[in-house]
């Protein structure tokens, strides 16, 4: 039995009609803005040298520079990537550029510790260490400190998360729990997407591209100075994407487009205070239900925006505090198919979020570093029911309060013990405790061994507690359950990272996870229906993540990655799960990644990325047996040529080994194949 709540129609339906003229208009406005600010003070020579790209500046970091790159996601404070005691990978701006990625989900394929599967033309399943089901809900995603998960199902609507990739500084990807610092839903991992400061994006940038799947792409950005030490940038981006095909060869009719624009202002008014204000708006449309013969396809749309402000005061290199506030509004309209005598109709969701966050970091004595802080989040979620899907109550206000404290204690010169906890209060389950302990042994300056024990929770979403599906025959096919509690994880990790010499670096992370109160699908004794979500499943997973970088010669770098995952989900003794624990996971046991990056003569770059993804066993909600997604191998290539210092042409190909292949979904009429894609791109910086 396959429930009517098909994810493809649940949240892949997005985009408000946005005229293609947006792209050209935004480009003209940005360039006009550049000329209008010609009277503003020019940046100093030093600043110009630091922010103007050059052929040297566009080259990849050396392995030593990469290991020294500061990351902030592990401890909420800057620390060298090579000394971060966690399973973390960093995707740099240059790696994104050279991969040929045109979206954030595509860029995330560069993180070996993630499971990334494209479901349709616009929708993706992304997770870490398992549970990459059709409603992935155990991965926290941040964009410049702003959480982008939706309380509707505690996951991420990936096609709404966009940015001008040229302006991204890096993406930090942690596999493993991060609840102590980041809170609920940071169960299996954290993705932290960080953009460059406005000071680092001075001048103009314009890009345009076209291909068979990415049919057209236009983006532009201009950065300048409003006053001494006050920098800004504005940007716009627009693209059209072609539809994919169903497995029977017919068109899925899910072409879509997306337009986005925004700004950022950064001030370094003094050596102690830094201010940031930034915001984005987006809109677009898509077809999510194909039309039959003589029937037009149904369209969905989405739109929204956000604004964020952050103030940081620095007292010393290891002593600072910050305050951040943001507001976001997201609107979604998703059409649903008819079911029997129940007509088709759209589901609408309007979400308003206000978040306030404070953090303080200071040394205590000679060997302790304290980080503590608090957060308050308010969400107002208003759902307009579809005929076949309802969320009750339709309007729901939620409050989230949390506080955390972490102590990094230097026991000896080479041994560091970090302990901390987060205490969070939500309106569903009350107080939740998420402690962790982490031990770091710096064997040498270039080798580090670490171990951790952590507890994390995935708090309920409206999907768990409020979802209802009517049935003409039974009244209710799926009913809400107001007693659904948090899913809980206790994780044990052991890892090793080394920079062996100037040519080789790598890391190995192992883990064992124990889950309780996992989501199950229960049925009513006697009448069988309505079905409802409960917490009747238990689970265990273990595995490893291995990455190696090898600088073969100064112009050629190789990268290899391998993931192994074993997982088992079962029904707790004496409990019921109609799906027998099959519906929450859709994960490959093995993943292999190989990448090559070459700087060739004539200012030419050649990059290749190969991936092999093992067979996936999956099941739709309500099924009692699994289906199979066959293993597949694919190759991405990009050839780039720097015609001049600030002019770059490139040709990128994705999924080149097959015409089409399946990455996700359940076998049937709604499963889509992902097609081979080729597109050309031109980028100019001035």
Can you walk through the features of this model?
- There is one protein chain.
- A hairpin with a 7-residue loop joins strand 1 and strand 2 (79-80).
- The strands form seven sheets. This protein has a 22-stranded antiparallel barrel. A five-stranded mixed sheet has the order 3-8-9-6-7. A three-stranded antiparallel sheet has the order 13-38-37, with no helix packed on it.
- The model is unreliable at 1-58 (pLDDT under 50).
- It is globular.
- The protein is built from eight helices and 39 strands.
- With 686 residues, the chain is mainly β.
Biggest sheet statistics: 22 strands, antiparallel, barrel
Mean pLDDT: 88
Number of beta strands:
39
The parts where pLDDT drops under 50 for at least 5 residues are 1-58
Q: What oligomeric state do the depicted chains represent?
A: single chain
What is Rg? 25 Å
Fraction of residues in H or I helices: under 10%
First-to-last CA distance: 58 Å
Helix run count: 8
Strand content: over 45%
Strand pairing plus helix content: what structural class?
mainly beta
Assign an overall shape: globular
Summarize it.
With 686 residues, the protein is mainly beta.
Topology:
Layout: H1 7-10, H2 21-36, H3 45-51, H4 63-68, E1 70-71, E2 79-80, E3 87-92, H5 93-99, H6 104-107, E4 115-118, E5 124-127, E6 139-143, E7 146-147, E8 168-175, H7 179-182, E9 189-195, E10 203-211, E11 214-227, E12 230-241, E13 245-246, E14 256-267, E15 273-289, E16 298-316, E17 319-336, E18 345-364, E19 368-384, E20 390-391, E21 395-410, E22 415-426, E23 430-444, E24 447-458, H8 462-465, E25 467-471, E26 475-478, E27 487-499, E28 504-524, E29 528-553, E30 556-571, E31 590-600, E32 604-613, E33 616-618, E34 627-629, E35 632-644, E36 647-654, E37 660-661, E38 672-675, E39 677-685
Parallel strand pairs: 6-9
Antiparallel strand pairs: 1-2, 3-8, 4-5, 6-7, 8-9, 10-11, 10-39, 11-12, 12-14, 13-38, 14-15, 15-16, 16-17, 17-18, 18-19, 19-21, 20-25, 21-22, 22-23, 23-24, 24-27, 25-26, 27-28, 28-29, 29-30, 30-31, 31-32, 32-35, 33-34, 35-36, 36-39, 37-38
């Amino acid at each position: 039995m396959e429930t009517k709540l098909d994810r493809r129609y649940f949240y892949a339906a997005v985009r408000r009609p946005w005229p293609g003229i947006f792209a050209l208009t935004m480009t003209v406005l940005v360039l006009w803005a550049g000329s209008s600010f010609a009277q503003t003070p020019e940046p100093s020579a030093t600043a110009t040298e630091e922010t103007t790209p050059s052929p040297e500046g566009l080259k990849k970091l050396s392995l030593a520079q990469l290991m020294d790159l500061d990351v902030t996601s592990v401890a909420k404070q800057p620390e060298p990537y090579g000394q971060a005691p966690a399973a973390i990978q960093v995707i740099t701006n240059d790696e994104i550029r050279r991969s040929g990625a045109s979206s954030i989900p595509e860029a995330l394929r560069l993180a070996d510790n993630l499971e990334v599967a494209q479901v349709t033309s616009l929708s993706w399943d992304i997770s870490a260490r398992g549970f990459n089901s059709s409603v992935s809900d155990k991965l926290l995603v941040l964009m410049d400190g702003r959480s982008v998960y939706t309380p509707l199902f505690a996951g991420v609507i990936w096609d709404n998360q966009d940015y001008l990739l040229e302006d991204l500084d890096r993406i930090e990807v942690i596999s493993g729990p991060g609840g102590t610092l980041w809170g609920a839903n940071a169960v299996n991992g954290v993705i932290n997407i960080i953009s460059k400061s406005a000071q680092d994006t001075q001048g103009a940038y314009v890009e345009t591209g076209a291909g068979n799947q990415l049919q057209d792409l236009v983006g532009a950005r201009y950065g300048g100075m409003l006053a001494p030490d006050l920098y800004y940038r504005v940007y716009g981006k627009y693209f059209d994407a072609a539809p994919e095909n169903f497995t029977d060869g017919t068109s899925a009719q899910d072409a879509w487009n997306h337009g986005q624009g925004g700004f950022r202002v950064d001030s370094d008014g003094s050596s102690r205070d830094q201010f940031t204000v930034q915001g984005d708006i987006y809109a677009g449309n898509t077809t999510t239900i194909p039309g039959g013969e003589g029937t037009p396809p149904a369209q969905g749309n989405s739109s929204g925006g956000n604004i964020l402000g952050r103030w940081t005061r620095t007292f010393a290199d290891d002593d600072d505090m910050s305050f951040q506030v943001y507001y976001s509004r997201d609107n979604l309209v998703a059409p649903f198919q008819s079911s029997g005598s129940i007509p088709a109709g759209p589901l609408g969701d309007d979400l308003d979020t206000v978040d306030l966050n404070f953090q303080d970091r200071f040394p205590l004595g000679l060997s302790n570093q304290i980080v503590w802080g608090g957060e308050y989040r308010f969400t107002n979620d208003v759902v307009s029911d579809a005929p076949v899907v309802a969320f009750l109550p339709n309007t729901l206000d939620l409050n989230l309060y949390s506080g955390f404290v972490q102590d990094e204690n230097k026991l000896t010169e080479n041994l560091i013990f970090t302990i901390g906890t987060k205490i969070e209060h939500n309106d569903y389950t009350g107080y939740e405790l998420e402690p962790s302990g982490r031990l770091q042994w710096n064997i040498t300056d270039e080798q580090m061994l670490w171990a951790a024990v952590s507890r994390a929770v995935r708090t309920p979403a409206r999907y768990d507690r409020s979802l209802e599906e009517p049935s003409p025959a039974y009244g209710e096919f799926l009913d809400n359950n107001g007693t659904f509690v948090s899913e809980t994880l206790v994780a044990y990790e052991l890892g090793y990272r080394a920079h062996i010499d100037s040519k080789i670096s790598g890391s190995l992370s192992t883990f064992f996870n124990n889950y309780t109160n996992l989501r199950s699908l229960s049925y009513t004794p006697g009448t069988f229906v309505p079905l409802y979500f409960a917490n009747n499943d238990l689970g265990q997973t273990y595995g490893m993540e291995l990455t190696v970088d090898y600088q073969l010669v100064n112009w050629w770098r190789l990268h290899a990655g391998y993931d192994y995952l074993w997982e088992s989900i079962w029904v707790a003794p004496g409990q019921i799960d109609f799906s027998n624990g099959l519906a929450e996971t859709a994960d490959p046991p093995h993943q292999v990644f190989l990448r090559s990056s070459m700087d060739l003569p004539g200012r030419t770059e050649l990059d290749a990325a190969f991936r092999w993804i093992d067979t996936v066993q999956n099941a739709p909600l309500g099924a009692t047996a699994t289906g199979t997604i066959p293993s597949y191998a694919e190759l991405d290539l990009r050839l780039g040529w720097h015609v001049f210092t600030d002019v770059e042409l490139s040709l990128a190909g994705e999924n080149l080994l097959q015409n089409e292949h399946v990455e996700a979904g359940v076998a049937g009429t709604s499963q889509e194949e992902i097609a081979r894609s080729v597109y050309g791109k031109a980028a100019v910086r001035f």
